Amino acid sequence: MTRERFYVLLFCFRYVKVCITKFNFAEKFKMGKKEELINAVVGRAKEIDGVKKLACAEAFELAQEFEAEIIEIGRICNRHNIKICKCQLGCFR
Q1: Other beta carbons less than 10 A from residue 82's beta carbon
Q2: Are 76 and 41 within 8 A, CB to CB?
Q3: Which of 3, 43, 45, 48 ranks highest by number of CB atoms within 10 Å?
């Protein structure tokens, strides 16, 4: 690789890093995905006896569909007062 080519590549990498940092493209992309996940969890929750509930199996399906950690689904449920029901391990009834 010639020296000129090396400097051109180095400039390109630095420019891309500055663009990502300055304009926060990565965070905006993540926020869009997170908003979609929140909407999906809240949308799938059913109101039973005045309490929003989400089946454990549905929580796992959402995690797989959105490539999210199951703990993130749990945090969303906690923030939106959604109870987990029909737990596969028998923890929540």
Answers
A1: 22
A2: yes
A3: 45
- 12-16, 38-42, 62-66: which has the minimum mean pLDDT? 12-16
H-state helical runs in 45-82: 56-65, 70-79
pLDDT value of residue 8: 61
- Across the range 70-78, mean pLDDT stands at 91
Matching residue, tokens 């039973």: 48
Extract the tokens encoding 13.
Answer: 């990498």
Residue partners of 45: CB distance under 8 A and separation at least 6: 52, 53, 54, 77, 80, 82
pTM of the model: 0.63
Task: Tell me the HSE value of 4 on the side-chain side, using a 13 A CA sphere.
Answer: 0
Phi, psi dihedral angles at 23 (to 5 degrees): -95, -5
91 with 85: CB under 8 angstroms? no
